[in-house]
Specification:
Length: 854
């Protein structure tokens, strides 16, 4: 860093000496007459322009006898210096009076930044002390220069230079100009780990936030050198080891060294792992009368035989202490104690429950929230002013405030109150931007190109509300959605969400029909535990089906379920009006047998089309259990999602739909992760209402990879139709996947490979059965067509109504995948080969999907 200063005009002499707070020499000359003869009233002020003489006199405090001695005068001189209002102060005595001569600091006119492109003027202005119309101070300018340098260094620019320039203006005013040479970002050329044996360096790079620089680093920001982030990484490494049984771990140092050849920093973490421990025993001791320690055993997340987990131990202490408070023991303190057995590598854990000091919260001060309302912050506390002080509840409140993602920093500290049994909580916050505007794009082999424009606000009006509006437009999918969330319904920790949406799914290479859906759904979410959530919801939506014109040549009479041929203008133009009339005349039954001769959609689709818009009104719930170590890139933990929806609370359809989805991640050797994925669902018919085709499960690569969307399960096999998938009311699926890194590629690229095997089944179609022949057997009584010269087949016994194959076969496949957590968003490429499949299934070996925000 280089810091320089250029001075123009008459201020050169005022800025020569850099080591003193004032440029001019401060002199105190006292006459030989006793100073005790002087009083405050005998002070004469000279040279002041803006500062009142009375104000200057007020800095001189007389003694008990009302007189000023040498000590009083010296103290007054120091007080004047500390104000920062003057660049020169002299005190002399003449004619029995004390003369205070001052030279006031100039007034700042403009404060200007030049050369800054990466950091805006507004941000720099908010960080420095020198302000327009304020007092110019040389030490303040030096401090501001250092502050600007620090801001740039935290953004990774260590080559920055800042030169303050003072321009003198009339009437004792000056302009301050900071000339900035931002330089280039200083990145991280390499990250090394020393002493790690159990976990590879590849795995530990996932734990920390700092990343090595690469050719895609310009899309991120964690590759720039930030000493605060590196220090935080030390704690992340330590906590990771403590979570996985290494009770003795120490991250001895995080060494950084600048490499001028690579123009980047070398970062080295020195680790002493120690031994991995398991829990040998868990016991509870209570010294509080009336509180049995074993009564809190159910709140311990540590069990005998499991790996020692410091994080689970902390959560256990927190929950036990909170439960003790609920039972009336407000001052109970739970302290865990671990006795190591170095031979057996076990830890005996004892929860000691004692009576803590009787301390009460006198006041909670919230500071730094310029936008967020006070009550939004205070409601995250389970304690209030006047309650017993409980450190566990304070720590929980601090964690909740951080999880809000409203603030750059959150820190809760304590200070003594008005008495020994009172404590004051200070909540210091720093606000950050909570609004997002994004333009997202993606492409997949299923949905084609897709774009989304959205605007959202996490802290709407400073009230902690969430709002989002988005518009989606793609080749096959379009829609609009509005979302609103009130996280505290009626001042309870219950989230209320409201969603309104309009979606349009167009016909595509995998689905012959399109759908239009407009709906509204309120939902209520409850956090049962940190790893358990429950959501209750109600949904009402209207859905109707559409067909492209070339498939819309027939109409179904909803009264009798029969088809009537109604050629489109395009068909008539191609085949002539006489042909249309002749076809209608040769179908006297009105059963629309000719429709299938011209690639018409299946009868269940035509029935949906004839019924028009259908309203579905349902209530449901979801229960989630999540112990994943990382929601975006998990390597360990379990995720279970169980949900049920009952349709029939009004509306036109009735059913009960149940589904479960479970994923279990396990780390194996050499950074390989095992994923077991199980899923299943059942759609239950209620009453006499027929189940619609659109309400049934449609499966493809979401169940077994290697198949097209809607590529498996029961299917209309009429050779003259579009052979649409009909869906099913039951399904199950199982998958075993191994994910492994590409060790030869830089970790920061975020690429890893996968190999997997899938198995699944979908069946038990229960949709419309008019004109149906089960299995592949022709429907008895089907009227055979006659050859009328228009290309219709004359094979007798061929049914042109609904013929469907149930295809009760378990589909299996094996494949490989490429997973990329790219700067462009998560991307995945899969190539899977079906091993077993139904006769009419549609394979699709390659699948790609992904998106980005830009």
């Amino acid at each position: 860093m280089k810091v320089g200063m250029r001075v123009r005009g008459g201020l050169l002499a005022a800025l020569v000496m850099l080591s003193t707070p004032f440029a001019a020499t401060l002199a105190v000359g006292l006459a030989s007459s006793p100073a005790s003869a002087q009083t405050v009233d005998s002070i004469e002020v000279q040279g002041n322009r803006r500062v009142e003489a009375a104000t200057i006199r007020s800095y001189f405090k007389a003694g008990p006898n009302g007189k000023l001695d040498k000590g009083n005068i010296d103290d007054g001189l120091k007080a004047l210096i500390e104000t920062g209002l003057f660049q020169d102060v002299k005190i002399n005595q003449a004619g029995g009076r004390i003369i205070v001569s001052v030279v006031e600091n100039p007034v700042l006119g403009r404060v200007v930044f030049e050369g800054n492109k990466k950091i805006k003027d507004e941000q720099l202005s908010s960080e420095i002390q020198s302000k327009p119309r304020g007092t110019f101070s040389r030490p303040m300018v030096q401090s501001d220069t250092q502050r600007i340098v620090e801001i740039y260094r935290h953004s990774g620019r260590y080559d920055v230079t800042v030169v303050p320039e003072i321009i003198e203006q009339p009437n004792n005013r000056v302009d301050l100009i900071f000339t900035i040479n931002e330089g280039k970002k200083t990145g991280i050329s390499s990250i090394e780990f020393v002493g790690n044996k159990f976990y590879s360096s590849y795995r530990l790079k996932d734990v920390i936030k700092t990343r090595e620089s690469n050719f895609l680093s310009f899309l991120g920001g964690n590759d720039v050198y930030d000493p605060d982030r590196i220090e935080a990484d030390r704690d992340l490494i330590r906590r990771y080891y403590l979570k996985h049984g290494f009770a003795d771990v120490q991250v001895v140092a995080a060494l950084t060294e600048y490499d001028p050849d690579k123009k980047g920093f070398l970062v080295t973490f020195k680790i002493e792992e120690g031994q991995q421990y398991r829990v040998g025993s868990v016991n509870f001791e209570s010294s509080i009368p009336g509180l049995n320690g074993n009564a809190l055993a159910s709140y311990s997340r540590v069990s005998v035989g499991s790996l020692y987990n410091a994080e689970a131990l902390e959560k256990s202490v927190e929950e036990m202490q909170i439960e003790a408070s609920r039972r009336g023991f407000a001052f109970a303190v739970v302290k865990p104690r671990g006795d190591r057995n170095f031979d057996n590598h076990t830890v005996s854990i004892v929860y000691s429950i004692d009576e803590g000091p009787r301390t009460y919260i006198e006041r909670i001060n919230v500071r730094g929230n310029t936008r967020t309302r006070d009550y939004v912050i205070r409601r995250e506390f389970d304690i209030a002013e006047g309650d017993a002080y409980n450190r566990a509840l304070v720590d929980r409140a601090e964690r909740r405030l951080k999880n809000l993602d409203f603030f750059k920093s959150v820190k809760i500290t304590t200070e003594p109150g008005s008495s020994s049994d009172r404590v004051i909580l200070n909540v210091d916050l720093e606000e950050k931007s909570t609004g997002d505007f994004s333009v997202s794009g993606g492409y997949s082999t299923i949905d084609g190109p897709l774009a989304e424009v959205s605007i959202s606000e996490r802290n709407l009006l400073g009230r902690g509300l969430f709002g989002k509006a988005s518009v989606t437009y793609g080749e096959y999918a379009r829609g609009v959605s509005l979302s609103f969330v009130e996280p505290y319904l009626l001042d309870y920790r219950i989230g209320l969400g409201l969603d309104a949406y309009y979606n349009e799914q167009l016909s595509n290479p995998f689905i012959a029909y399109g759908t239009r859906t407009i709906g509204f759904s309120p939902r209520v979410g409850l956090q049962l535990r940190e790893d358990m959530t429950l959501q209750l919801r109600y949904s009402i939506y209207q859905q109707e089906i559409s067909l492209p014109s070339y498939l819309d040549n027939c109409n179904m009479n909803p009264g009798n379920g029969l088809l009537a041929f109604n050629p489109s203008p395009a068909w008539i133009a191609a085949n002539g009006a006489a042909a249309a009339t002749a076809l209608g005349a040769t179908d006297p039954s009105g059963q629309g047998l000719w429709c299938y001769s011209y690639s018409q959609a299946s009868l269940p689709i035509r029935k949906e089309l004839a019924q028009g818009a259908i309203i579905t009104s349902s209530v449901g719930y979801s229960f989630d259990y999540n112990t994943l170590d990382n929601n975006k890139n998990p390597t360990d933990g379990l995720l279970i999602d169980w949900k049920q929806d009952f349709a029939g609370v009004g509306g036109d359809v009735t059913y009960l739909k149940s589904a479960v989805d479970a994923k279990y991640f396990t780390p194996l050797v050499a950074d390989i992760v095992s994923l077991v994925h199980l899923q299943g669902g059942i759609l239950t018919k209620i009453g006499d209402n027929q189940i619609r085709m659109l309400d049934q499960f449609q499966m493809g690569p979401n169940l077994v990879r290697g198949f097209a969307p809607n590529g498996i399960g029961p299917r209309d096999i009429n050779p003259y139709g579009t052979q649409d998938a009909l869906g099913g009311t039951q399904y199950w699926g199982a998958s075993w996947e191994f994910q492994m890194p590409f060790w030869f590629l830089p970790k920061e690229l975020g690429m890893k490979g996968a190999i997997y095997a899938d198995a699944g089944w979908l069946g038990d179609y229960q949709g419309p059965t008019e004109w149906a022949a089960t299995g592949e057997i022709n429907r008895p009584g089907c009227i055979p067509p006659t050859n009328n010269g228009f290309g219709l087949p004359a094979a007798p016994g061929t049914c042109l109504g609904l013929q469907y194959a149930a295809q009760n076969v378990v589909r299996t496949s094996v494949g490989v995948g490429l997973i990329w957590q790219s700067p462009f968003g998560p991307l995945r490429f899969d190539y899977a080969i079906p091993i077993t499949m139904g006769k009419y299934d549609i394979p699709m070996e390659f699948k790609f999907g992904g998106g980005t925000t830009f």
